[in-house]
Design goal:
The chain is of the alpha+beta class. It has two helices and three strands; from the N terminus they run βββαα.
């Protein structure tokens, strides 16, 4: 079904979605939480670990700009942070 043998994962931004199951005594149809994580490229830490609700709340307060440089700026910032954190 999925053939990712030719995909180069180096230099890619990974996003992990974690669905938290509710307690056994609670309603099981709805997750207790949904977390969004952006791991370091070596998977030994996270740039971001927050709930989906928190992430969506952040977007409601953002202004839209004609030229969106978010991805290049984010990539540079994450690389710098990871280098600084990994060097400790």
């Amino acid at each position: 079904m999925f053939d990712n043998s030719n995909v180069d994962f180096v230099g890619k931004l990974h996003v992990v979605i974690v669905v938290i199951q509710p307690n056994n005594k609670d309603e099981q149809r709805v997750p207790a939480n949904i977390m969004v994580a952006i791991p370091f490229s070596n998977w030994k830490g996270y740039h971001v670990w927050l709930s989906l609700e928190e992430l969506l709340d952040m977007y409601e307060s953002e202004e839209l700009y004609e030229s969106d440089m978010a991805w290049p700026t984010l990539r540079i910032a994450l690389d710098e942070e990871e280098t600084k954190t990994s060097g400790e």
